[in-house]
Design brief:
258 residues; mainly alpha; 3-stranded antiparallel beta sheet; 12 helices
Length: 258
């Protein structure tokens, strides 16, 4: 279990540092703190994302220092940079209309990623580690093993009627997300449609609509792999029961329930 989680963790670090090296090519001893600062401030990423990136960059510079690529007795360019304040923000979710537009415009390979995130609430990292063998449409369950879930404990996520309908159209062989670039593809799709992509929007949407539907924080916490306290504090009463019915009523066009 530890090995598989570690491999995923390292892939995440590598992805960030690959972007950093592309943005600031050249020798590491020539990179300045102001250059790093400008790179971190580019785009519209949230403070939590920027702080996450800075932490990884500091790891890189510390490693370079220990390995002799930077002077051992001098502070690195990254050391003086400070975390930015992470303001408390409202949970950002998709409306039912936005979710329908995303699914209807998505190419077939992106539909399972969007549908599982929005209608089962799995984290993106969990979906990336998911194999179709763990998705059982007959039992209406998605099984997350301990080495796949963020909380390192086995979890069963229910498959709603509309999620089953969307997944029934997929090939359902091998990994659900065969290519990591598909995560960027979903955001690019939203951008082309003029739809904003709030942080963790698919998962936040599921939890918000699900608790409005079942009105049970403990149940939703168990399904989503979270704590009832967090569910109750951040997601309760964000949407109406009617909106929840509309969300879980998003079916593929032409769907006929047999």
């Amino acid at each position: 279990r530890r090995d598989r989680v570690s491999a995923h963790y390292l892939r995440g670090i590598r992805n960030i540092l690959d972007r950093f090296s592309e943005g600031l090519p050249g020798e590491i001893d020539r990179i300045t703190g102001s250059q790093i600062e400008r790179w971190l401030r580019r785009g519209d990423q949230m403070a939590v994302t920027r702080n996450h990136w800075l932490k990884r960059i500091k790891y890189l510079f510390s490693f370079a220092k220990r390995s002799g690529y930077l002077p051992k007795n001098d502070p690195t360019a990254a050391e003086s940079l400070k975390r930015v304040r992470e303001e408390a923000t409202e949970v950002g979710i998709f409306s039912p209309d936005e979710m329908r537009r995303l699914l209807e415009a998505a190419p077939p390979d992106l539909v399972p990623l969007l549908a599982i995130g929005g209608f089962a609430g799995l984290r993106m990292a969990e979906i990336c580690r998911l194999d179709w063998s763990a998705v059982c449409l007959e039992r209406r369950l998605i099984e997350l093993r301990a080495n796949q879930a963020k909380t390192a404990s086995r979890r069963l996520a229910p498959i709603s009627d509309n999620l089953a309908a969307w997944l029934a159209r997929a090939d359902r062989v091998g990994p659900v997300v065969p290519e990591k670039k598909m995560l960027d593809d979903t955001r690019n799709l939203a951008r082309r449609l003029g739809i904003g992509w709030p942080h963790n929007a698919l998962r936040h949407s599921y939890i918000s609509y699900r608790i409005a539907e079942v009105k049970n924080a403990a149940q939703v916490a168990l399904e989503a792999g979270n704590s009832p306290t967090i569910i109750f504090k951040h997601y309760r009463e964000l949407v109406t029961e009617g909106a929840a019915k509309e969300w879980f009523g998003i079916f593929p066009s032409g769907f006929v329930d047999r």
